[in-house]
Each structure stands twice: as C-alpha cells, then as structure tokens.
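Quick start: read one record
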Amino acid sequence: MSAHDPGFTILIVDDDEGHIELVRRNLRRIALGNPIVALQDGARALNYIFQRGEFIGRPPADILMLLDINMPGSVNGIEVLRQIKADPITRRIPVIMLSTTDDPREVSRCYDLGCSVYITKPVDSGHFIESVRRLGLFLQVIQVGADDSDRFFPSNPRVPAPEPR
C-alpha cells in the first residue's frame, strides 16, 4: 500500500440498514478513508467475494469483512464465513463477526470456522455507537500495520497471495 492507497475495502454484510449506516457513519467520523461496500444478504456477499453474478469483473481489492450472523434467506453469516474460510484463496480474508448473538456456542463456532474477531452488538444504541467507534480505531491500527499488506490481505481474492515470510 502506498501513501495514496486507501488500503483495504471494508465489506459490511448486515440485513439491518440502520446498523450499516451507523457503522459507515462512525468509520467516516474517525476519518477512516477506506472504501466501504455494504450488502444486505449473504448470497450477495459471496458473489462479491468470489466475483460472481453482478460482481463479475469487479476490480480486485484487499477486503476486510464485517459480517452479521443473523440474516434472512438461505445464506446466513455462518454459511458465508464457512464458504470463505473453506476456499484456499479467500480463507485469508479477515472476517470480523458483528452480531447481537452472544451465545457462547455461536461465538465458539465462528472462531472454529476461522473468524478473526467476534464482536457482540449491544442492543442499546449508545453502546453500539461506542463499539463501532472502537472498531474504527481497531481498523486504523490494522491499516497502519498493513504496510506489508500481502501478509494480511490477499491482493486479489481469486489469485493466491504469496506465503508469509
């Protein structure tokens, strides 16, 4: 990444438009200038990651995914995580689970499937805003530490990244 490169694209996958907007607004508020793509269902998220359907030909991008577990339809967050981590190319994409689910079995399941971090969304909007602010600060730290970005993010999810040194 160069000084003019915004780093990685933040992919938010959540069926709640209010949560998406809160995350987007708070990441902008702390001056995190990364591109943000928001999708509201798991099937579209998989199409985006694997460059299928409406996302065929999308420019390659380093991705950090913020993923909700409970989404309507046949492809929930657990299934999105499972498919991403099962693929030898995309398994390197960092996935941060953002969910209201705090069931220890679900949290454990997400870590077993390969999520990077699991954050429980507070139901109270003030606490949720504070959690998103902290997440933004965490992402700033990742961005600063990602000068050797191919160690953390594949440069193109369909092209193998070099193995870490």
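The helical segments are 17-29, 42-49, 77-86, 104-113, 125-145.
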